[in-house]
Design brief:
Blueprint lengths: L50 H4 L5 H4 L3 H10 L2
The protein binds iron/sulfur cluster.
């Protein structure tokens, strides 16, 4: 699946590992501070980008067909 760059995965899930500037990770439904105005990750390609983010790949099972559907699915997995 090609990423539609909706950024649901940078907003909906909680992330327990530290993120630069977010030492305790990210609570669910809180926008990551590295998500820029173009809905892209400012840490893309940088060593400090969390491993959990690097390891995440778009997948219809998690991403659904829209931002709203992805948020619903990702929240149900919390
Ligand atoms: S670090 Fe980047 S990929 Fe990870 S949640 Fe934040 S914006 Fe998204």
């Amino acid at each position: 699946m090609k990423c539609r760059k909706c950024a649901a995965c940078c907003i909906a899930p909680s992330i327990s590992s530290p993120i630069p500037g977010m030492p305790n990770g990210k609570p669910a439904m809180i926008r990551c501070i590295h998500l820029n105005e173009n809905m892209l990750c400012d840490l893309w390609g940088k060593a400090e980008r969390p491993k959990v983010c690097e390891n995440y790949s778009p997948n219809p099972e998690f991403c659904g067909n829209s931002f709203e559907e992805a948020v619903r699915i990702l929240n149900s997995l919390q």
